[in-house]
Amino acid sequence: MKKIAVLGSSGSIGQSTLAVARSLKHKFKVVALSVNSDIVKLKQQIDEFHPRLVCVKDKQCAYKLRAGVGPSVKIFCGQDGLSELVKDKQIEQVMFAISGAAALGPLISAICAGKDIALANKEAIVMAGPMIMRLAEIHKVKILPVDSEQSAIWQSLGGQSQANVRRVYLTASGGPLRTLALNKFKQVSIEKVLRHPRWRMGKKITVDSATLMNKGLELLEAMFLFNLGVEKIKILIHPEALIHSMVEFNDGVIMAQLSATDMRIPIQYALSYPERLENSLAGIDFYRLDKLHFAKPDLKKFPSITLAYQAARDLGTMPAVLNAANEESVNNFLNKRIDFLTIPKIVDKVMRVHQKKAEPSLEDIMSADAWAREEAVRLAH
Length: 381
Description:
The protein has helices at about 10-25, 40-50, 60-65, 80-85, 105-110, 125-140, 150-155, 190-195, 205-210, 215-225, 265-270, 305-315, 320-335, 340-355, 360-380, and strands at about 1-5, 30-35, 55, 75, 95, 115-120, 145, 165-170, 235, 245-250, 255-260. It has about 375 residues and is α/β, with parallel strands linked by helices. It has a 7-stranded parallel β-sheet with strand order 4-3-2-1-5-6-7, sandwiched between helices.
């Protein structure tokens, strides 16, 4: 029985991970959980899964939780507490279901402690991909992708060298604004942006899906996870979201991974790898399938893709700046400080004035991240 930690257990990916653990109790034991502040949800999860370790990022909420759980549960708090929790000897694999740059410190801590990683967080790899992959190699740690697109590339590669790859097609549903005219973007409501046609996700990633920055972050993520040059990765709009990505090899053969739009499928594979375990999740009925559609992304409507390709060519601290400026701009949009069209405009302005460091240390990356956040907030006012 594999002992797993689920970081971000109150979010959509975290809850889906616990659903997989619930359905495969003979295979997985949940020994650690973490949330930002939702201690009501966490208490329910503690009562069901009986983890020995939990972490609450918000210190006041952690203090409140202490009164509601027994002494057998060790409670960590804050960012440092999360980095400490992942080192525990009980844990064999850590599911990173927390979003944003906050995952970077705990991810490095878990890798250095020799824990295998199920990775649903894009931002940490985008910020410090080369460093993370180097550390994983040094500590002999497996980083197993959970995002449906990265999981599809991983499965389609089938262990082949990147030298055998002609190109990768990174598929995108097109998000909630795919069919909306560009002249309607300025007035688009938060409610419409958050109404994704295919996936139920957290607010930040749903906004990223609307701007297609989500696909830009995945471009950088795929480069680092699979050691691919930016020129080999193409973004392809596929509204049905059944083909999760494709790999074309040098001989013209294309391998594609298809499955229903259910995150429990890539989550289960990342946890069970190299096994493929039975489940009761829906499959694809090809007899009822009518058509599959594909298109190039409209770069005028979705300039975030162009910005991500620019960061992928520049590298150094630029991916961290792209990510940080976007994170702050999405937050400003959700808090009604800026309109939808301003999100990529601010990211573009921040990238243009950034003084890139070509071979950054972790300190350089964190400094670039902090600077880009300040700059994005300044530009929003």
